[in-house]
Design a protein that fits this description.
40% helix; globular; alpha/beta; seven-stranded mixed β-sheet; Rossmann fold; 7 strands; 5 helices
Length: 193
Amino acid sequence: MVSTKAIGWLMIGLILGFFMMGSTVSMVEQSVISVESGIVRINPTGAAGSALVVYHPGVTTFNRDVTYAFAGGLAETGWRCDVTTASPVAPTDLAVFDLLVLVTPTYFNEPARSIAEYVGFLGDLGGLPVELVVTAGTDSRVSSMQLEALIHDANGSVLSILELWQSAPNEAFDGVTDPIEIARRAGSSIDLP
């Protein structure tokens, strides 16, 4: 005969398992779904250069917040920024841009599929400077390397890779460890070669 206590533990285990399975399915869905959005232009009269900032929104607002902080930093130093999500309707003619910024969350050690697919839509980048911003809970090394390889394969010139974590301490940037402020400062320190 099975005790009431054993049945209780079994039920708790089933409920937790069901919850974890649902969370994993949600993350998988978020990693593959592209979200179409319009273009938000920040600092329309910017004369320092023109940047296209493309991001995948992610499961939380963290990636969006990082994206807009980075674009805000660029705008502070005179850049005109067009910000949009990675999707089939995002701009693919990059001739009017001096810089491409890609911002991606990490899912299962990989960049968001929408970002990888977007890079594929672009074809040959013709040496265009590209800044990579890779976010994660705690570790983004593998995702960063994969995205960097995609850019090199597309003939882009990676300026740098900024890795920002939501659940682990970030490496100090100008004495700051807050990921949103790091993103803003990193955007304001972009100089093209």
